[in-house]
Amino acid sequence: MEVTKDITKDSKIDLAVVSKIIRKHKDNTGGIIEIFQDIQAHFNYLPKEALQLVSKKRGMPISRIYHVATFYSIFSLIPRGRYIISVCTGTTCHVRGAPLLLETILRELNIGIGETTRDRIFTLEAVRCIGACSIAPAVRINDKPFGPLNPAGLLRLLNEYRKN
Amino acid sequence: MSKVIKSREDLKNLYCRILEGRKRIKYSVTICGGTGCRAQGSENLRDAFEREIKKRAWGRIGKIKMSGCHGFCEMGPIVLINPGDIFYIKVKAEDISEIIEKTIIKGQYIERLCYKGNDGEIYTRDADIPFYKYQKRFILKLNGRIDPTSIEDYIISGGYSALVRVLYEMSPDEVINEIANSQLRGRGGGGFSTARKWKSCKDAPGDIHYVICNGDEGDPGAFMDRSIMEGNPHSVLEGMIIGAYAIGSSQGYIYVRAEYPLAVEHLQKAIDDAYSYGLLGNENMLGKGCGFDIKIIRGGGAFVCGESTALMASLQGEVGEPRAKFIHTVERGLWEKPTNLNNVETWANIPLIINSGSKKFASIGTENSKGTKVFSLVGKINNTGLVEVPMGITLREIIDKIGGGIPNNKRFKAVQTGGPSGGCIPEQYLDLPVDFDNLSRIGSMMGSGGMIVMDEDTCMVDIARYFMDFLKDESCGKCTSCREGIKQMSSILEKICAGYGEEGDIEKLEEIAKLTIEVSLCALGTSAPNPVLTTIKYFRGEYNVHIKEKKCPAHVCSNLIKYKIVREVCVGCGVCAKACPVKAVKGKKKLPHSIDEDKCIKCSLCKVSCKFDAINIE
Predict the structure, then answer these.
(1) Domain of A109?
(2) What are phi and psi of A141, to 5 degrees?
């Protein structure tokens, strides 16, 4: 995988933020997923230290914490890039050419699905339908959907983001 | 002054006050804020309109709002101008000053921005356009008209009047009876009687009852629920409050898919407003001594959580694994308490049924499927969008009349309904009336309402492979038959698509499919083989060509196709060589080029770039 140790090393995890999130959800009987969502919204992924703290504070074994964190596809256990490119691979996008878009990005960024570029600008993800079928084939960068795209248009879009 | 609505009179007074306040508004511009239109720049349009209104100091007489999805996503961004109800499509920022000068001030329409029919006819109003004319918009009626972030817009359109009627005129049993008379069936896929579900939950012993709205719309190619949650969130809330009153529940949850941030935003705004108007979180709602709370829970991106027991597990903060339903969730669901779960569209139907009467609702549709159904009509179709049709309409009417047929004069091949659990329906069934039972009879299902049209360029083996690949990832892994069965079907299909298919593969697929259906626990496993079985049943020939001749007739499976330059047609312009990302195209300028098969990755960029149509797929 492209994500190497140097990425995790330099990031300091502010556990005070995590404690605050856990406190916010303390009255919530379920709540683990919401805690994870808030942690990920802050750190862009679920840091190991944060999960350990959740385990301690909620009195849940770390195995169960990881069971939940790895079950749901939105959670990432490794740091991700500034821009998360989600290539929609829903049925509509599939029949309208999503496989070609995916291949274009794989080649352009030289990373696999779920991986992050070395410069930590892009993370590539394949998602199942973002509900934007009218603009299929579509790609979402962070929260913004783009489409319909062809390989050339997609490359132009990536370059725009790279410059920013 | 407190905003809390304490009685029937209060709501009526509020309605009159809003109406009075709006009398001064002379012009209104409604811009579509659905996902499709947003992606095409509708937010910029809103800002530009606002600047223009400010410049003209129209603050008091002009109103600009962003509505939910109009459904006609192919034509976005859509702008609706009042007075006149003029419907403009594909509007750009540079059109705005002309719209204001001509349409708003002079009342004239701009031909270039109107929808043009195939016969060249100009349509200024949406209701006349064939795409809308053949629909029956019941649930989607207010989508595209009201501002989903304004409770006042909902109230002025008759919102919360059904709730008042229920609280003041009907007992909980009468509400359930009314829903029973409407014969409403759940819109999430199963098609179970809504009233029966409510009654079982109401009768289940326990001090606490829960009500859940399932907004985990996971089917790829489906965005009906998203559009309702984004475009008319109060209709879902009103339905849930009525349901809670009938069942005797005081706590509700809306479980929304992680991929739908805008739906969460609009629902949250609607809930906050409902709280401040005393419609939620008030122990004495409308002075009637009952109350209800609603909380939004965002999903974690797991398809299986659309299944009711998995969804409840996820709500409890656990892994979304379904459980056996020996004891129904209406008796023991969320935290072991009686729980009633309905889909977004089902909830949105409730206030409409109460207001228009169960008789009217039951007069629409077929014998066992009443009312309307929203479909997302997508894929190889001219008018991509969200359509609402009466049950019993034929697939052909939906595809040809509303959808405007298939682009580029291609031939229709199949329509896929019901998401990954559904099947592919071939041409021979196009005249079948669409309802719950008919679709199941031919091996597909209604599902939540995705309708993906496929043309001759779609490979049916590839579609089956696609769905197995999807479900392989989404199976929660609890049942071996589902986890391993889907995986095996997926690898056989991968093999066939890669050109290594063998005699007997089809039979093997059928055998595994049968076993997966019989042994799996939840609907994900028992319906997962549907895409494989229906494509084998209706398109066996295509499988045979892949296996025996190692060819893909639709030119999709990349291992089975070759790109070739026709020497006689090629002029040697070199455009394709430039387009090729792997430098597989070779040749001298002005001489016919050729493609190096070993290097070619079959990306089709050369074929797309060639102006002389000199590249063929074999």
Answers:
(1) 83-163
(2) -115, 120
